[in-house]
Write a structure and sequence with these properties.
The protein has 328 residues and is an alpha+beta fold. It has 17 helices and 5 strands. A 5-stranded mixed sheet has the order 1-2-5-3-4. Helix 6 packs antiparallel against helix 7. The protein starts with a helix and ends with a helix.
Length: 328
């Protein structure tokens, strides 16, 4: 989306990707995961060249397609009602590249509010991301052939910015409340029961099963970034890569790698020690000398490796290898 807007304003793709850890080739790979720090770096590059213009985020959103949303987009397309679309979008938003977090507030009477929470977005790019992610709500409605019956749009932005923003769709079509403590789109509660024109219950059920599995892979059972790092550390039979090397291969910064692993309850050092233990046992059982194993696992001194192995297995590397030979 941002590259399309940049190109339309005469800014080359290479300018947007500068110092982001993203290459043009990796961006073309649909399986690449874009981390928040990388997205914010792209936004900063865009704003540095075009200025933080009100409406630029909205213009960016209108360049999105349902295909960019992947399985959640297909789920929305086949959902029976608008309420089901919202449910899918909120439950599986972690699988979609948006900066804000969406939630639904339902008073149980006449109104609902789709809240667009930008609390975790850095302040210098927050206005851009919020206007983009609010506009995406209306884009989805347009793609699905459903008009979003917004009663009002609440924005936690300055009155000065909003005066310019209301010149751009969708902010030019609905009442906008400025200076609020949150950002949200308020609608009549009846929209939840609005039937979708391309409803397909069988497809929706199939896609939801796939979404649930994708979500488990992404967030659960240790199969997120933690698993990717562990698999990378185990991949080579030679020397173990450093944290900086792993981060570079994943197209993220060391800082982002540290933070994302921490969010999953892991650390690079903890994963490294676990992999070192596994590899050490394999190498010793395979006949490698203690000195060779220490070098391959990145220890400057063999004594340091010996101390670590004793901590892992309760015996020295020599005693471990002798126990293997006895069993053979």
């Amino acid at each position: 989306m941002m590259i399309g807007v940049a190109n339309a304003h005469g800014v080359d793709e290479s300018v947007l990707l500068r110092d982001t850890g993203i290459s043009a080739d990796s961006l073309a790979d649909g399986s690449m995961r874009l981390w928040p720090d990388q997205e914010y770096a792209v936004v900063r590059n865009l704003l540095a060249h075009l200025g933080d213009r009100p409406g630029l985020g909205a213009q960016t959103a209108w360049r999105a397609t349902l295909g960019m949303a992947g399985l959640p987009g297909l789920a929305a397309l086949s959902s029976p009602t608008a309420g089901a679309v919202l449910s899918f979008a909120i439950r599986y938003q972690v699988l979609v590249p948006v900066s804000a977090r969406y939630s639904l507030e339902d008073d149980g009477e006449s109104r609902i509010a789709v809240v667009v929470d930008g609390g975790e977005i850095p302040e210098d790019v927050r206005d851009f991301c919020l206007e983009r992610d609010v506009t995406l709500i209306f884009l989805v409605g347009a793609v699905l052939g459903v008009e979003i019956p917004a009663l009002e749009i609440e924005l936690e932005m300055s009155a000065e910015r909003v005066r310019e923003l209301v010149r751009f769709e969708p902010f030019d079509r609905h009442p906008v409340q400025v200076g609020r403590s949150r950002t949200c789109v308020v609608m009549a509660r009846s929209v939840l029961d609005q039937p979708m024109p391309q409803a397909d219950p069988q497809t929706a059920a199939l896609v939801e099963r796939k979404l649930a599995e994708a979500l488990r892979r992404s967030l659960g059972a240790g199969r997120g970034l933690t698993a990717a790092v562990r698999e990378r550390l185990l991949r080579d039979s030679g020397a173990i890569p450093t944290m900086a090397e792993v981060a570079a291969e994943l197209h993220i910064t060391v800082r982002t790698l540290h933070r994302q692993l921490s969010a999953e309850g892991a650390s690079f050092r903890g994963l490294l020690n676990g992999v070192r233990e596994t590899k050490a046992a394999e190498l010793l059982a395979g006949g490698s000398t203690i000195e060779e194993v220490a070098r391959l696992l990145g220890y400057a001194e063999t004594a340091n490796f010996t101390h670590a192995f004793r901590r892992w297995r309760g015996m020295s590397p020599r005693a471990f290898r002798q126990s293997i030979l006895r069993r053979q």
